[in-house]
Amino acid sequence: MANKPFNFKQFTVAQERCAMKIGTDGVLLGAWVSIENSPQSILDIGAGTGVISLQLAQRSLAETIDAIEIDNDAYEQCTENFENSPWADRLFCYHASIQEFVSEIEETYDLIISNPPFYSENFKSENSARDIARFTDALPFDHLAISASHLLSENGTFAVILPKKEETHFIEIAAKSNLFPKRICTVKGTPTSEEKRSLLEFTFQKNNPSLETLVLETKRHLYTKEYRDLVKDFYLKM
């Protein structure tokens, strides 16, 4: 099943060549991040299949939506997904590391978004592509924050999704690059389960961040109204 194309309401994502398949994290981030300031330029760091970029193409009128992907197979798949979407003229994927991209690009972006690799444990599988997609040594948090601060416009927003346990650590790292939390949303699978993920938005302005909690299910496959409202424009069964 995981290798089959994933059909959303307005686009389809092929994923057979991507180590990381469509999952809740990326779709959550693409649906949750605010576009109230009408970003004209968007950058997706570590794009994978390109699903977040495609969500933002659907949600916004941004003229430029760029993506960066270091893995060759994922880059080719992302490019094909962009070309086969209704917004092909606004989407473009670069085959590069974020470090290479920062050194070559002079433009800034109104919105930078990333579902970064985040397993920092000393464990590697036999799937090197999946390891690159999932471990922090491929995209260290400090590199991500520094790169975002270089590429973000003055009044822009930088958004990520992370394990809850990494939230405080990442906020401390981001502060060293003058990025400060504006919104923080903790995500729980059910009302009684532990908080597993944190959705975060950063800006260059110091704020008292707004705090939110999102519960996905009241019980197995019975989704909360808040979650359904968030993703209803994307998932076919919502």
Detailed description of the structure:
It is a single chain. The protein has helices spanning 24-32, 51-59, 72-83, 98-104, 128-134, 141-151, 167-175, 225-231; strands spanning 6-7, 12-13, 41-45, 64-69, 91-95, 109-114, 152-163, 180-188, 195-203, 210-215, 217-219, 222-223. The strands form 3 sheets. It has an 8-stranded mixed beta sheet with strand order 5-4-3-6-7-9-8-10. Strands 1-2 form a two-stranded antiparallel ribbon. Residues 119-125 and 129-137 have low confidence and may be disordered. Helix 1 (24-32) packs parallel to helix 2 (51-59). The two termini are 20 Å apart. The chain is α/β, with parallel strands linked by helices. It is 30% helix and 28% strand. The chain contains 8 helices and 12 strands. The protein has one domain (6-231): Vaccinia Virus protein VP39 (Rossmann fold, 3-Layer(aba) Sandwich). Strand 3 (41-45), helix 2 and strand 4 (64-69) form a beta-alpha-beta unit.
